[in-house]
Amino acid sequence: xxxxxxxTLSISAQTRKPAVRKPATTTVRKPATxxxxxxxxxxxxxxxxxxxxxxxxxNPQYREVSYIIRGKAHGFPEGEWVKLCEPSKSGLRAxxxxxxxxxxxxxxxxxxxxxxxxxxxxxxxxxKTLVEVFVEEGxxxxxxxxxxxxxxxxxxxxxxxxxxxRDSINAIYTQIYDCTRESMRLTNSAxxxxxxxxGADSLRKQQVEYTYTFARRNLGNWAGIYLFAEYYKRFTTAxxxxxxxxxxxxxxxxxxxxxxxxxxxxx
Length: 267
Description:
Layout lengths: L52 H4 L7 E11 L6 E8 L2 E9 L4 E9 L3 E7 L6 E7 L2 E8 L4 E5 L2 H27 L6 H28 L4 H10 L5 H10 L8 H12 L1
Parallel strand pairs: 1-7
Antiparallel strand pairs: 1-4, 2-3, 2-5, 5-6, 7-8
Helix pairs in contact: 2-3, 3-4, 5-6
């Protein structure tokens, strides 16, 4: 839950993502086999990553496929809402939601055969839990524990490739969270607050370095491509050039790389 820790910081600092409202038409999922279709399936292009939408309509390799997300959520109240959200300009927007049946929940729908990062959101306020999930063809297994902020996502190629990154980066995010929290504590001296702030800045640089290393090692799969697309504005010019040179041919025509080349050449 890479961003879950950061979203619990002070509202006054406005580091949290906007709260996701429960859709007005949401209904409780019935046990058994009732199917629900992701609203994005009505417009397959809407299910694609924003970074590759331009390629979808003109490229036949992008086709509609089915996905299933099966999960267990430990330590949450009976009937807690689980929202499946996607990024939007105003924050996270729920595309589907269900209530826990005991500890179990599931989603199913249609998407493009291009892994797309979505977020499972449970709870409210400082207890809100966010879990990153790549929605792609196949069955994704999710296991979430509330208070310990532990989650595990597996079952499909991109989620399997991305999990080691999430597991490793969580330790850095935990330290960033702790430093940021202490830097905002008014009971600390000004010198201590500044020291914590500098510590958080150093950890953020460490996070970017680790992300670059992981992305370079994983450019042969969508996890590496996703991290490159998400972080290129934080990478150095030399790092972007190295990654661009290493992108496999099967991904080379994605419009995001033209955007990255323009960004890199401007520096």
